[in-house]
Write a structure and sequence with these properties.
The protein has about 325 residues and is an alpha+beta fold. The chain contains 13 helices and ten strands.
Length: about 325
């Protein structure tokens, strides 16, 4: 069981390309706080990133990739001093005056002072409780000269750039897949370049005993696991297992399993037509009442209301913004 892929698949509810554009100075784009992790690729030129108006700016260069996991407000601009406009307004101004949604041929031109960006986002269900995102820093920056350390990241960058700007047949489907792959490669880079003490849950995945236990939970969430049975699977005593699991994962085994079961249930509610009683049985609850109680405690609303909300979100979703 690939636990990392499992968590991403269960908690991600969409991705989008928000901007494939070329900007000429002066320009500034403000990405407001929202429930979305943002990524930015500097396709050509350079720019500055600020987490807020007062934060120290970070200069980005051609080929750099940045991930802002928490969806916090931040600014991209040609200069640290350039005022920023909300993203929609900045793109509208750009499109009106500069034909910013360019072709790849235009991007290979001679506009030395222009900057070409590919910006997008990932939406996650209850992002603040995601066991993966909660470990990540506000910004993950991969400089172009370290791109090879990200495995196939450079290849994904080139393919995504081509699809965004060339707009070939089927591009929307290809882009969606590439954006997901980009996310995984950025995570791999970060894990490989961070001290192990900074990533407890990810470190737990690499631990031979606790990693095996997590895999079992993810592979068979509906099994009536107990601390004793999990400890037995990991070939550890109950006390040692419980202590080590909590130290690495950040919470006791029962709490983690409950959150994971509810995460699976939320995905099933979003994506399937199964009844709530069927879903509750699949993830190991003996009654729909106990399932609803746990679901409300973790998600903040009953499963029935969650289903209604998700149907409305899907009808009005802006997750699949077309790339023009």
């Amino acid at each position: 069981m690939d636990v990392l892929a499992n968590v991403i698949a269960a908690t991600r509810i969409g991705n989008a390309i928000l901007c494939g554009a070329e900007f000429r100075p002066p320009w500034g784009i403000r990405f407001d706080t929202e429930n979305r992790a943002h990524f930015h690729i500097i396709s050509r030129g350079n720019c500055w990133l600020r987490l807020n108006e007062d934060a120290k700016p970070l200069q980005l260069f051609q080929g750099d990739v940045v991930l802002a996991p928490f969806g916090g407000g931040h600014i991209l601009s040609d200069s640290p001093d350039t005022p920023a406009l909300p993203m929609a307004e900045a793109l509208e101004n750009c499109s009106r005056s500069l034909h910013c949604r360019t072709s790849d041929e235009t991007l290979s031109g001679t506009g030395a002072s222009s900057t070409a960006l590919i910006c997008g986002g990932y939406s996650f269900d209850h992002q603040e409780r995601n066991p993966l995102l909660s470990l990540l820093p506000p910004i993950i920056h991969i400089p172009a000269d370290r791109m090879e350390e990200g495995g196939g990241l450079q290849t994904v960058f080139r393919l995504l750039r081509n699809e965004v700007y060339e707009k070939s047949s089927g591009a929307e489907t290809v882009i969606s897949r590439l954006v997901d792959v980009l996310f995984v490669y950025v995570l791999r880079y970060w894990v490989a370049n961070e001290p192990t003490t900074s990533a407890s849950w990810l470190t737990a995945l690499e631990d031979p005993q606790i990693g095996k236990t997590l895999a079992l939970m993810h592979e068979n969430p509906g099994k009536p696991w107990t601390v004793d049975s999990l400890a037995s699977e990991s070939l550890m005593s109950r006390a040692v297992f419980a202590k080590r699991f909590s130290a690495l994962v950040g919470e006791p085994p029962h709490s983690y399993l409950t959150r994971w079961r509810i995460g699976i249930a939320a995905r099933s509610i979003r994506e399937s037509g199964k009844s709530l009683s069927e879903i509750s049985r699949e993830i190991g609850y003996e009654s729909e009442f106990s399932f609803s109680k746990a679901f409300r405690r973790i998600m903040g609303l009953p499963p029935g209301e969650y289903r209604t909300r998700e149907k409305m979100r899907q009808q009005n979703s802006e997750d699949l913004i077309p790339t023009h």
